[in-house]
Amino acid sequence: MLAEDSYEGEGLSNVETVHALHVLRVALDKLGLVGATRVDPQLQAAALAQSVGEEITQMIAEQKKLEVRFVALVAEQPQLRNLPNKNKLHENQKEVHAVAEQLRLGTQALVRNLKEEYVDGVEKHDLETQATIERERITTAAVKQLKAEIKEEKSRHEEEMRRASQALAELNQQQKAVALGGSSKARYRQAQVGAANECARRLENSMLSELQDQIAALQEQLEIDQQVHEASSGHSLKVQGWLREEALEWGSKVDADLAAKEKDTQTVKQERQRDLMALKDMKEKHEKETALKAERDVLAKDAVDKEAANLVLKEKQAHAALKIQAAWRGFLARHAGKGKGKGKVAKKPSKKKK
């Protein structure tokens, strides 16, 4: 009875067993929470690259449409300059200025978006890197804590096994001192102690194997996170390089387009100034020709009026001459008859005639 009481006092109590299981479960819950809060940065990087690519493609398509429209408008100008009506040419020039302004604004917006996407990508990459480092730190700390708890539990188990071995040695000694009548009871106690030790050893081995499996799973998860971090870092660097090249290329293209548009604008202004001067000369010539024509019309009208007056005067003179001749003939005829009847007295009318 004394040996039995001493062994039972050295064993692991139920409260300590429940406490050990509680510590292990809390550690497993913490590790599960760390694994559940993992975010896949590769998917985020792919979605970011896809959205940036779609936006850049759309803006480039719009720029190409505007460039095609600008080339078509510039190509129409030589034909419009040959037309007498310059309204269509002025409308074409206005539309050319509007399209050039849209091209300039669109290019500036594209460069601004590329810069913003580049800065956002760098910031997101830094945040993802910090988050990955934080997850690795938490996972490493959890693994270290779990290893420390396992080490502490193992040392506690070794201490309990040492105590159990000491109790077993004492029982063996007591068993030798016991009489033959108590040998069966001692063998039963020994078998019970051995079974209890074997059960405790199997339970500890099972728990240790589970903890080792969990440690291996955590290490594997940590390696996967590191690989994902390296892949996302490489992809982010590629995207950053591509965005930098696109920004430089579009910047040079913007400068070249602006220079070309400024040159075309200067050419259009010079042509407009030349057309205005030509239009002014034509207006002056037209005014002079109109004035000369008005003078010629006035002179022609005066000549016609004068000729008509001369004709009227000639007709009046002819009519008057006819009347005078008729009156004179009548007069001569009347006085000629009187002269034949009176002789020489008929010569007096001739003086009146004079």
- Element-by-element helix/strand order: HHHHHH
User: What share of residues are in beta strands?
Assistant: under 5%
Uncertain regions spanning at least 5 consecutive residues: 1-10, 342-354
Q: Mind telling me the C-alpha Rg?
A: 63 Å
Q: Determine the fraction of residues in helical runs and give it as a percent range.
A: over 70%
Written overview of the protein:
The protein is an all-alpha fold and 354 residues long. The chain contains six helices and no strands. It is rod-shaped, with a radius of gyration of 63 Å. Residues 1-10 and 342-354 have low confidence and may be disordered.
Summarize the structure.
This protein is an all-alpha fold and 354 residues long. The protein contains 6 helices and no strands.
Core attributes:
354 residues; single chain; 6 helices; disordered N terminus
List the helices and strands and how they pair.
Elements (H helix, E strand, L loop, with lengths): L1 H9 L3 H23 L4 H41 L5 H91 L5 H160 L5 H6 L1
